[in-house]
Amino acid sequence: MAEGASIPGRRVTSDENFPVRIESTLGIDLLADSISGEERMGRLFVFHLELLSENPELMFDNVVGQRVTVVMELEDGERYFNGFITEFRYSGARGQFSRYQATVRPWFWFLTRTSDCRIFQDMTVPDIIKQVFGDNGMADFEPRLNNSYRKWEYCVQYRESDFNFISRLMEQEGIYYFFEHEKEKHKLVMIDDVTRHAAYPNFATIPYHAQTDNTGFELTDVLDVWTATQYVMPSRYAMQDYNFKSPDVNLLAKHKDDAGHETPLSDPEIYDYPGEYIETAEGMKYVEIRQQELACQRERINASGTSRGLAPGFTFTLSDHPRADQNKEYVAIAVEHMINNKGFFTEDKGTQELYRCQVEVMDKTKMFRSARETPKPVVQGPQTAVVVGPSGEEIHTDEYGRVKVQFHWDRYGEKNQSSSCWMRVSQIWAGKRWGAIHIPRIGQEVIVSFLEGDPDQPIITGRVYNAAQMPPYTLPDNKTQSGIKSRSTKEGSSDNFNEIRMEDKIGEEELYIQAEKNENILVKNNKGETVGNNETISIGNDREESVGNDETIAVGNDRKESVGRDEDLSVSNNRKRNVGVDESINVGGKRTHTVGNAETITVGEDQNINVGKNQSVAIGTNRTIEVGKDQSVSIGAGETRNIGNKLVIKAGDSITLECGASKIIMKKSGDIKIDGKNLVLNGNGSISVKASGQVKIKGATIAKN
C-alpha cells in the first residue's frame, strides 16, 4: 500500500494533509470530519462540527465554552471560522475513532444567556451598545457607522437578555452587523450604510459557471446556480406619534419608494403607530429606515457554488453570467457553508465535494436593513414604584407636574433624581391652566402604567398606601371617614396639615375643614349659607368684615354680642335700627353720642333718663321741647338758668310759682295772686302802680317815707 494511503476502519494520525483542520487551545487532537454552518448579516452565526478523536473520554467541562478555530486552506492563504463551543456531545465510535459533535457560536451569543432590567438615560443607541458590551467584558467589536443618532431620554431593558435588548435597538435604528474572523478571534462589525462594505480579500470578483452534470465539480471558487427573484412589497410607509410637549404638532411621517411595482393597489402603504419618536425629523428618519427594510427584500438572489470567499457583509462582483444585468456588484447577506474532509476512511474518499455554499445576496447599491424580528418586551400590567428625588427634598417636580420614581426591579438605581425619567402624573382633571393637581411626594408609592405596554413609556395613574406610608385615619376604626389631609413642607410634622374630612357615621355626620395657616374664600357672585341649628365662630385675634352694598341680619330669637374691649362702628350713610320690644344699653364707663346733623328720638310710651351724676346739655342754636301732656321736672338741689337774652314762659291756663309759704299764681283770666309772709318791692328807680279800677291797700299800719 502506498505511503499515506487510508486504511479501512483506521484513523489517519493527523489532518495536516486535509484542507480543513481544527485549531484550539484545548490541548487535544480533534479532526474535522465535516462542518456545516450559517452566517447572516444582523444575526448570529452557528457552525456544526463533526469531529473525530482518538480519545473516547474527552471531558466535556474542558471543552464547552472554549474558543476554537476552523482553518480552511485557500489557494493563496487560509480562511478562518472562529467561535466558541456552546454545545458538545459524544455520539459513539467509528473504527478506532470516537465521534463528537460541537456547536460553535460567536461571543455575542453568550449575551443570550443573560437577563436584566435596567434603565439607560440620555444616551444614543451606539453608546448603549458600547456600555452593555463593556459591562460584559466584551471588546471585540467595531462600530463603522456613518449616521448620527438621537439621544434617548429614557430607554429600558426589561426582563430580556442583553442580546435581545441590543438586537432590537439595532433593528430599530437601522444598524446591522456581521463578523470578521481571524485565526484567534472574531470581531463584530456594526454597519449602517452599504458604502462601508468591502470585498473579501482575493475574492473581489467571482465568476459564474453553470452546472453541466451531477457527477461532481472540478471547478472551485465559482457560483454555478444563480436564481434572481423579485417580490411585491409595499411602496409607502407612514408612522405617527405624539409629543405632549407639543400636543398640536402633527408628527405624521411618510416615505415613498419610487422603485415599486405596478399593482392593482395604488401605492400600497403600511401605517403604524406609535413610531417611537417625538420630533418630526426623527420620524422621517425612522420611516425611511422602515421603508428600506421592505425595499431591500424586493429583490434577492439565491446562489450556490464552490466559492470559498463569500461571507456576509462582504461584497463581490459577479462575472460571466449570460444575463448582462446580473454581472454587477453585490453584497452577501447570508452564507450557508458545507465542508467535508471525507478522507479519514477509505470508503468516504471521493463521495462528496470538499466545499459548497449557498448564498443570499442583494444589489450593493440598495440599502440593507435587518428585519425587525426581535420582539420588544411588553409590560403586562401596571406596576408600583416609589417616588424619588434629591436628598433633603420632599417634593421634586418639573413645570409639567412630573415626578421621578425608583422601580422595585431596578437594582442599579440609587433612589435619587437620576433613577428614572420624568413621568407624567394622572390627575382627576387636567385643563388649560385649570383642573386638579396633587403632586406625589418623595417616598410615596405610586401605580405606574405603560402606554401600549411599552416599558419606555411609563405614566403614573394612581397612588397606594403601604406599611411605611399609612392612611391619614386609623383603620378600620375610622372606616366611615373620608377626606383629604396634606402635610406642611418642608419638615412638617403630623401636627402641620391642611384637611378636609367627612364623617359619614349615622348620627355623627360631620364636615371638618382645617387650614394650617390662612384660609381665603372668594365668591364672585352670591353666597348662600344655611345652618340648621347652632353656629359658633371663634376668632383668636382680629376680624374684619367688609360689605360692598347692603347687609341684612335677621335673628329669629335672641342675639347677644360681647366685645371684650373697644367697638368702633362706622356707617357712611344712613343707619336704621328697629327693636321689636325692649332695648337696654349698658355702658360701664363714659359714652359719647355725636350726631353730625339732625337727630330725632321718638318714644312710643314712657322714657326714663337716669343720670347718676352730672348732665350737661349744650345746644348751638335753638331748642324746642314739646310735651303732649304734663311735664314734671324734679331737681334734688338747686337749678340755675342763665339766659343771654329773654325768657318767655307761657301757659294756656295758669302759672304757679311756689316756694315754701310763698306763692305766685297767674291765671289766663289775667288775675295774678301773690301769697307770702312779707313782700318787699325795691326799686332803684321809680315804681309805678296803675289800675283801670280801684287800688286797695290794706294793712295794720301803712307807713310812708
What does the model show?
It is a single chain. With 705 residues, this protein is mainly β. Among the domains are: 1-194 and 330-361, Baseplate protein-like domains (Phage tail protein beta-alpha-beta fold); 232-295, Light-harvesting Protein; 378-470, OB fold (Dihydrolipoamide Acetyltransferase, E2P) (Beta Barrel), CATH 2.40.50; 481-512, no CATH class. It is 6% helix and 28% strand. The protein has 3 helices and 31 strands. Strands 1, 2, 3, 4, 5, 6, 12, 13, 14, 18, 19, 20 and 21 form a 13-stranded mixed sheet that branches. 19% of the residues are buried.
Give short descriptive properties of this protein.
single chain, mainly beta, Phage tail protein beta-alpha-beta fold, OB fold (Dihydrolipoamide Acetyltransferase, E2P), four-stranded antiparallel beta sheet, disordered N terminus
- Which CATH architecture of the domain at 1-194 and 330-361? 3-Layer(bab) Sandwich
Count of individual beta strands = 31
Over the alpha carbons, how many angstroms does the gyration radius reach?
56 Å
Relative strand content: 25-35%
Average pLDDT score: 88
